[in-house]
Design goal:
This protein folds into two domains: 56 residues, no CATH class; 95 residues, no CATH class. By secondary structure, it is α+β, with helices and mostly antiparallel strands. The chain is built from four helices and 13 strands. It is globular, with a radius of gyration of 16 Å. Strands 2-1-3-4 form a four-stranded antiparallel β-sheet. It is 20% helix and 30% strand. Strand 12 and strand 13 form a beta hairpin. Bound molecules: zinc ion. Zinc ion binds next to helix 3.
């Protein structure tokens, strides 16, 4: 038995959920470690056990990044600050959903911030990509940059 650390990872398959604590995989001291740990399954939640906050930070490798689609985008659900979709009428009937086309991509030892199929650039003309040392920094920057691409 090991002690549970601050960030607990739950994951599983949509077809065979175990339910609750049975979907618990492991725990990590930092959010970055928890995100970087790869888990099998269709869905994944990271819970900060000190606050109860749930993190859904989408991560892809170079291969899967090319094929990422977002069913909320296909339904033309509005997107707002922070890279999330909202109810079209804001009635709060469904929770804000992170857009699947805003994510962090693993790139060797570093991370890229992706919005709508392309990484954020450090320099437009030279086409240099912005690199991050942590997955959470890459995702945070992608979320901040997304609305500027959507509503320039
Ligand atoms: Zn979307």
């Amino acid at each position: 038995m090991s002690t549970i650390k601050r960030f607990a990872v739950f994951s599983g398959s949509n077809f065979y959920p175990c339910g609750g604590w049975n979907d618990y995989q492991s725990s990590y001291a930092t959010l970055d470690e928890a995100v970087e740990a790869l888990n099998a399954g269709d869905w994944r939640h990271i819970v900060d056990l000190t606050t109860g906050q749930i993190f859904k930070i989408p991560v892809h490798d170079a291969e899967s990044a090319k094929a990422v689609q977002c069913h909320m985008c296909r339904c033309e659900a509005p997107r707002i600050e922070g890279g999330v979709h909202i109810d079209s009428d804001r009635l709060g009937l469904s929770a804000d959903t992170p857009c699947d086309r805003v994510f962090a991509m693993r790139d060797g030892a570093g991370w890229l911030a992706y919005v709508d199929g392309a990484p954020l650039l450090l320099h437009e003309q030279r086409g240099e990509v912005l690199r991050f040392s942590s997955v959470t920094a890459a995702y945070r920057t992608a979320c901040e940059a997304a609305p500027k691409r959507w509503h320039p």
